[in-house]
Prior knowledge:
Elements: E1 8-11, E2 27-32, H1 36-43, E3 54-55, E4 67-72, H2 79-102, E5 114-120, H3 124-127, H4 134-153, H5 159-164, E6 177-178, E7 185-186, H6 203-212
Parallel strand pairs: 4-5
Antiparallel strand pairs: 1-2, 2-5, 3-4, 6-7
Amino acid sequence: MSDTIWFRTGEATVFSSEGQGTDAMPEILIGSVKGPAGNAFATLMGQTEGHTRMFAIRACNQQVRPATIIVPKVTIKSTAYVNLFGGPVQSAIADAVIDSVIAGVIPADKANDLCIIAMLWIAPECATNPEVDRKDLYRTNYEAMKLAISRAMSNSPSIEELIANRHKIVHECTTLKPASRSGSLVGTLCVPLNSKGTHSVPYQACLHDCQTRSGEW
């Protein structure tokens, strides 16, 4: 049986320190450069306005292996956002990749045969906050990227775990709970809607509130 790593996915969320909007939520794909992951990686080399892609580098002339491309989940609209994406976040992702190789999570002998696509979240309000904690932005993205890589390489969570948790775990931003054996769900979004039917509070507020409240606003 081939030991080629063709297509592994992983994700993780690490929350910010108190009072910061620096939550990290990488979603990643790891796979052989000779397969669909490699094809997707090469395709992403083309640039799209507002969604600039970059290699993960630790510093100038220090691109990491496996080759990693970072993709913003949010449309980039300012230089301040670019400076965060191409600064502490890029550095955190790069460090997490090489540290995953050092730790043996990613086999060193496959470092040149694999590639990683990382879709990254930076809250838009971070770019407008001159006091944003760049060190915490690094911390959350570093920790989350290492966890996402570990999950991808171990195919975690397993299908058995997902089935077992189907009626025990719900999305952090909902109050949906199993209502019956049929699996139907009842409840409401914890993020209230305004008169236009859109969220009336920032997504970040939802993430933080869901950790500390019972789910009702």
